[in-house]
Amino acid sequence: MTIRVMLVDDQVLLRTGFRMVLAAQDDMEVVAEAGDGAEAVAQLRSTAVDVVLMDVRMPNVDGVEATRRICSGGEGGAGSPKVLILTTFDLDEYAFSALKAGASGFMLKDVPPGDLLAAIRAVHSGDAVVAPSTTRRLIDRFSTVLPATTPEPLSRGLERLTEREREVLTLVAQGLSNGEIAAELVLSEATVKTHVGRILAKLELRDRVQAVVLAYETRLVRAGGGPGTGTGTGSGTGGPSR
Q: What is the value of pTM for the model shown?
């Protein structure tokens, strides 16, 4: 199956570079390009797209608002594509908001081509992608835009989770892959995958990205990557980002 990709960035040179990388792949095709979010949303009404590579800072309609429209199934049409945010990190304070708006993940614009291609394929298959080396830094950077909370952590359904599921969610929020979580908790990778699936179902979350957002919003994990006041577990073990 060919993955139909839309490139959304106000810098023509960047779109050209990404298009050249994707054009060399047998399973990918760039079917549309846009210079801002409004143009992207308009094109999606008449163009079938599987994955949108979305810049954050653009004129007119930025990537956050465009992502919100696309992922809501509203102006983006019924068969909304997955959105993968491309951020420069140091400049894009709105990347976290884009994840909350429904993006399936984010990657840095200077990501190696192989990692970008793998991220597109993962997002297309229904997985979520968070730039592994920057998960904790992203959350630290954007923790100031999280909603103000009382001293007690927000619940948001965390009481539905078992102690083990909270441990797994804590490690997911710290940026660990299923394999790394399995090694940390001495479980099989298949068991971890099952736990993650149950966590998403119980908390009514779409993917791992939403799980990370919720973990920080509820203080299950605090900015800095460690466990927060709401873990309720004895784990709290940090680990390298995946």
A: 0.67
